[in-house]
Amino acid sequence: MSRYFTEDHEWIRIDGQTGTVGISDYAQGQLGDIVFVDVPEQGKGLSKGDEAAVVESVKAASDVYSPVSGAVIEGNAALADEPALVNSDPEGEGWFFKLTLSDPSELDSLMDETAYEAFVAKL
Amino acid sequence: MSDHDEDVIIETLALPLDGWHRARGGRMVEFAGYWMPVQYEGIMAEHLWTRESAGLFDVSHMGQITFRGEGVVPALEALMPADIAGLAFNRARYSLLLDENGGILDDLMLTRQAASEEDGEQVYMVVNGATKYDDIGHMIEHLPDEITLNLMEDHALLALQGPKAVDALSRLIPGVETMVFMQAGSFDWQGHDLWISRSGYTGEDGFEISVPAEAAEAFADALTAQPEVKPIGLGARDSLRLEAGLPLYGHDLSPETTPVAADLGFALFKRRREAADFPAAARILAERESGPATKRVGLLVEGRQPVREGATVIDASGAEIGRVTSGGFAPSVGAPIAMAYVPLAMATPGTRIQLSQRGKTHAATVTAMPFVPHRYFRGAK
After folding, report:
1. Chain B residues with CB-CB distance to A35 below 8 A
2. Do the annotations mark residue B208 as ligand-binding?
């Protein structure tokens, strides 16, 4: 399984045609205490760059963009009751949604883990 | 001369405790023209710590101003609806700087400082950071020439807030524990003159402490060395004041809002109402009689999603009938809360209303404020 990152701090983990999307540890640290997450519904079609989810900290609301195009398989229902999972395990249990990729070649424009670490180090 | 302003790059300024915050991991943001810490370990933890122990806030961006001169009390009364003449020495009072239409230019705290033979009486005032230079401009324009005004830029302002604030501060400065809410006085700490009032902006017991800039770091060190005290950022200051039902200037109050619409009628003192001698008194007193068109209320928002400043209050057809001026997740309530201006007919607690934010509708209920009970110290039980 490989993992990619966007400049907006989303990650996507690829398993065959399925991608799991969340926000990076850096992003959750910048947002602070997460108090609400709105994830997309099953079946929703997303284009790369679409607003896919909303994450709200005590301070502010932020949009989460889909790193690739595809159809949503499921949103992470656990986040409704426990949005703080995004803080405690952003790149694991705190995932936002899964989707079926419609164009895997879009992954080529994303950063791999090493490139993302270098990107964040410059911020 | 040109008829438009040149582009001026205004540098963000550092306050006396700038390095102190950075050394302690404060995340610095630009606020009111200064670098200020928005958070340390996290807004939620800092908020809850303040409610159960004591939090140290740096509010040195606020304007500390002293006024003196012959007739200083009536001169200041002409600009605001407070009864200053009826205020005892070393007592603090909340008031509003009003424009000629009754709009709110700023909200503030003022204290009468005891008169001395040679210096005469002095009034100490704390105004908001973002408005302090506009306030000074307005006051210089409207105060008589005999009144001198001094912006205390050589002083930091700290707030120590929370149920254990009195334990921590009285260990350093014995005697502060005898003051009650809205009482103030001069104290010595290691040879430095501090001006301390038992007041704050969190709804908790606590103190606001004016300290000479050169002593600010040592004093902040001494406070945070107390086991009850942690430094707290502006983020938790905002969530704490929202739960306490306290309005924030520039958000819940503005020149477009009047004292009556803002539900700050307590700031219109009886003697001043009877004399009708504050700015726009006729208009404000008429509004007080007939009721304002809209009124500031508290809202409990259903669900978990925060509804924030800028969201609208809508009627059944979706038309805008009011506006949310502050809102967010309330850590001590465990739910989203907000303040909004709503039509007077909908301002009664228990009224159900609809809010619109980014295309989504949220249900909310008008509720009495504060959302979290105030715990001010008003004297030994």
Report:
1. 304, 306, 329, 336
2. yes
> Residues 289-328, chain B: which have Cβ within 8 Å of A?
304-306, 308, 328
- Tell me the two tokens of residue B115: 């008169």
Contacts of B128 (CB under 8 A, 6+ apart): B32, B62, B63, B106, B107, B108, B135, B249, B250
Tokens (6 digits) for B17: 């405790």
Place of tokens 């694991």: A92
Tens place of pLDDT for every residue, chain B, 381 residues?
Answer: 444 455 666 799 999 999 999 999 999 999 999 999 999 999 999 999 999 999 999 999 999 999 999 999 999 999 999 999 999 999 999 999 999 999 999 999 999 998 666 667 899 999 999 999 999 999 999 999 999 999 999 999 999 999 999 999 999 999 999 999 999 999 999 999 999 999 999 999 999 999 999 999 999 999 999 999 999 999 999 999 999 999 999 999 999 999 999 999 999 999 999 999 999 999 999 999 999 999 999 999 999 999 999 999 999 999 999 999 999 999 999 999 999 999 999 999 999 999 999 999 999 999 999 999 999 999 976
Residue A33 and residue B305: Cβ atoms within 8 Å?
no
Cβ contact B308–A80 (<8 Å):
no
Domains delineated in chain B: 1-291 (3.30.1360.120), 293-367 (2.40.30.110)
CB-based contact A58 B331, cutoff 8 Å: yes
CATH of A2-103+112-117, one of 2.30.40.10, 1.10.8.100, 3.90.105.10, 2.40.50.100: 2.40.50.100
CA-derived radius of gyration, chain A: 13
List C-alpha distances in Å: B168 to B150, B157, B225: 31, 17, 9
Residue ranges per structural domain of chain A: 2-103+112-117
**Amino acid residing at B226:** Q
Q: DSSP for B40-67?
A: SS-HHHHHHHHHHSEEEEE-TTSEEEEE
Burial bucket for residue B79 (CB in 10 Å: 0-12, 13-18, 19+) = buried
Q: Tokens 């996290």 identify what position?
A: B42
- At B34, give phi and psi (nearest 5°): -125, 160
CA-CA-CA-CA dihedral for B97, B296, B93, B254, to nearest 10: -20
Would the ipTM clear 0.85, i.e. be above it?
Answer: yes
Contacts of B329 in chain A (CB under 8 A): 35-36, 56, 58
Chain A contact set for B235 (CB, 8 A): 32, 58-59
| Backbone Cα Rg of chain B | 21
**b/e burial code for range B44-59 (CB count within 10 A of at least 16 → b):** bbbbbbbbebbbbbbb
